[in-house]
From TrEMBL:
Molecular function (Gene Ontology), one example: DNA-binding transcription factor activity
Similarity field: Belongs to the LysR transcriptional regulatory family.
GO cellular component, one term: cytosol
All residue ranges annotated as the HTH lysR-type domain in the record: 1-59
Annotated InterPro entries: HTH-type_LysR_regulators, LysR_HTH_N, LysR_subst-bd, WH-like_DNA-bd_sf, WH_DNA-bd_sf
Pfam families noted in UniProt: HTH_1, LysR_substrate
Protein name: LysR family transcriptional regulator
Keywords: DNA-binding, Transcription, Transcription regulation
DNA repair found in the keyword field: no
Amino acid sequence: MNDLRQLRHFVALAEHSHFARAAEAVHLSQPALSRSIQALESSLGCNLVDRHSRGFSLTAHGQLVLEHARRLLAGSRALSNAVSQLGNLASGELHLGAGPYPAARLVPQAMGRFAERFPRVRMQLLIDNWQQLRTRLLDDEIELFVADTRELAADPRLRVEPLQEHPGVLFCHPLHPLLQRSALSMQDLLEYPLAGTQLPDAVADALRQTAGVNEFLSIQCDNFMVLKELVSSSRVLSMAPWDVIAHDVQAGRLALLRLSGLPGMATSAYGIVSRAGHSLSPAAEQWQQIVRQQDRDSVIPTLTLPRG
């Protein structure tokens, strides 16, 4: 292979699962795309796709090549970005990731600051749980991310920089029936559905032991904006770090619950995560600095828990 075009064509075919749609995506005719895939198979000495009456499927070799092709293409993009940004930040792309809670406040605020300073750099943000973000980072699909780091700190492949901690809180609709009770127990809480993002193992285990149930969450969703809307329009309960709902509570859109006789909920564990031993692009370096500054500058209303 003299360049990465054949790999790009193959990745497009795998992602679109259709020759015509893939050809359109890479601006080729369908016969030209077929010839490119055949040339790639010839150069590698193996079949990448099994063609049949209903279309095609990837062979075992195809699955392996797809995995490596994505990494090579991501590396090529990263190299181009780093070179184009070396002299200045007047161009290029920045691929970022964020966990559900940082994506609800800290990350968009930092993105706004970055966009004001470097308006010609295009940003792409992936929101997901920490497990998927780690995979995307190690596959070079994103350059760094901000997320819960409890399950990541011991991974030698990662560089983790902790950010501010925020207390965890339980919240509900401002007219929720539980707010009328003078003291709440875990059994009171279990009368209603509880929604949340994917929990770190340590947090999930502690909650399961405290509640005495195998599955603590009734609804799991890694989009926190969806969770807030769910809570604000129903009797579903949820939990989150204080910083992402503080202004909603202050404005009366959400309310806090307190469980009597139980320890406080875990604090957040946000951190900036990148690959250990890898240099960041100039854009990513600037982004990291802005996240740090935004984290220090953030003004969060004081947490005042209801009596109970």
